[in-house]
Write a structure and sequence with these properties.
This protein is mainly beta. It folds into two domains: about 210 residues, no CATH class; about 55 residues. The protein is built from one helix and 21 strands. The chain has a nine-stranded antiparallel β-sheet, covered by helices on one side. It has a four-stranded antiparallel β-sheet with strand order 9-16-20-19, with no helix packed on it. The protein starts with 5 loop residues before the first strand and ends with a strand.
């Protein structure tokens, strides 16, 4: 049985390399699923499965409108520079085997294509308009009616307005004291965020195992459970039509551990996280 228990700590060393999962031994005593970044404690994934499920299963993010094809000349010599160029942030991509018909593909690229898909400002914008990534600021945004996410170097920009070329989610503003992390907000009903009476807010930062030790980039001790997750310190503003919402911090077992004070002004709900209540999850529900 794999162990994925965790607790929270606001005092993690921000300059250390992240830990890997604590896993049971498998064939030959080798824990194959371990790695510096594993599914369970990669800061870009840790604790975000709830939002991922809503994005995929509820189709909060629509499929890209355009599908492109990549057809390597020889499978063993396939050049992946095309898919690494940023195209996956903009369009759908199908990998075609030799001789396969490019059904539904608007264009097929050979494996030697070196296309770049970011614009002059360094922005990658999906063709459905719901995902944006600023390659210069190192910030990404998911912007849909029922799920909004800001991720990357949170402290490198202040999300104060919404423009076509701005890395901000419409209806979610984040002013972060923590330099790196993910802030994800999803409606837990079928209503959009502005109207719903039930939301999940996840603020996920660095994570590592207790007592994990490193020598530079080399892990010398995997450590032990529980996994420690850095607390994100930020001011969160959410556009909402409701004024009866309360913000509750939630622990690893799903229990309320405290309430955050929120202010309502001009259609926005504003509160701070990580200052007094060390949590990574918050339920925002009607009173």
């Amino acid at each position: 049985m794999n162990i994925h228990t965790y607790t929270y700590s606001p005092d993690l060393d921000k300059n250390s390399i992240l830990g890997k999962e604590v896993s049971s031994d498998t064939i030959g005593g080798v824990p194959y699923r371990e790695g510096i970044f594993s599914t369970w404690n990669d800061p870009a994934k840790f604790g975000l499965f709830q939002h991922s499920a809503l994005i995929v299963r509820r189709c909060d993010i629509e499929p890209a409108k355009i599908k492109l094809g990549q057809q390597p000349t020889e499978r063993e010599d396939a050049d992946l520079s095309f898919t690494k160029s940023g195209v996956l942030d903009v369009h759908r991509v199908a990998t075609l085997m030799p001789g396969e018909e490019p059904v539904g593909c608007e264009k097929v690229y050979p494996d030697t294509d070196k296309s770049k898909w970011e614009n002059e400002a360094g922005l990658l914008v999906s063709d459905n308009g719901q995902m944006r990534k600023d390659t210069k600021k190192k910030i990404g945004v998911i912007d849909t009616p029922r799920t909004k996410v800001v991720y990357g170097k949170l402290a490198s920009a202040r999300f104060a307005k919404v423009e076509a070329d701005d890395t901000a989610a419409d209806g979610l503003m984040v002013e972060s004291k923590t330099d790196f992390g993910v802030v994800a907000l999803s409606s837990l009903t079928n209503d959009p965020i502005e109207k719903t009476d039930n939301m999940l807010l996840s603020t996920i930062g660095r994570a590592r195992n207790t007592d994990a030790q490193f020598d530079g980039d080399k892990m010398i001790d995997v450590g032990r459970p529980p996994i420690l997750s850095e607390v994100i310190q930020a001011k969160i503003s959410i556009r909402t039509e409701r004024t009866d919402l309360k913000v509750w911090g939630v622990n690893a077992e799903g229990y309320y551990v405290g309430k955050k004070e929120a202010k309502f002004e001009d259609g926005w709900m504003t509160f701070e996280v990580g200052d007094t209540l060390p949590a990574s999850y918050y339920l925002i529900v009607a009173d």
